[in-house]
Amino acid sequence: MPNYGTSIMRTPSMLEFQQMMKIEAQTALKNELDRLVMTGSPIEREKLRKQYEGFQHLYKTFLEKTGPSVVWDKIKPPPVGSIHKYNEIAKTPMKSSESDLLSKLVVVKLNGGLGTSMGCTGPKSLISVRSGLTFLDLTVQQIESLNKQYNADVPLVLMNSFNTNEDTEMILRKYASCKVRIHTFEQNRYPRINKETLLPVPQRLDGEHEGWYPPGHGDIYECIHESGLLQKFIDQGREYMFVSNIDNLGADVDLHILDMLINPPNCQTHDFIMEVTDKTRADVKGGTLIQYEDKLRLLEIAQVPKEHVDEFKSVSKFKIFNTNNLWMKLSSIKELVENKNMDIEVIVNNKRLSSGTNVIQLETACGAGIKNFQNAIGINVPRSRFLPVKKTSDLLLVMSNLYELKHGKMFMSEDRMFKTTPLVKLGDEHFSKVHKYLSRFEAIPDMLELDHLTVSGDVTFGKDVTLKGTVIIIANHGERIDIPSGAILENKIVSGNLRILDH
Question: Where are the beta strands (DSSP E) in 197-315?
Answer without folding.
Answer: 212-213, 240-245, 272-278, 288-292, 295-299
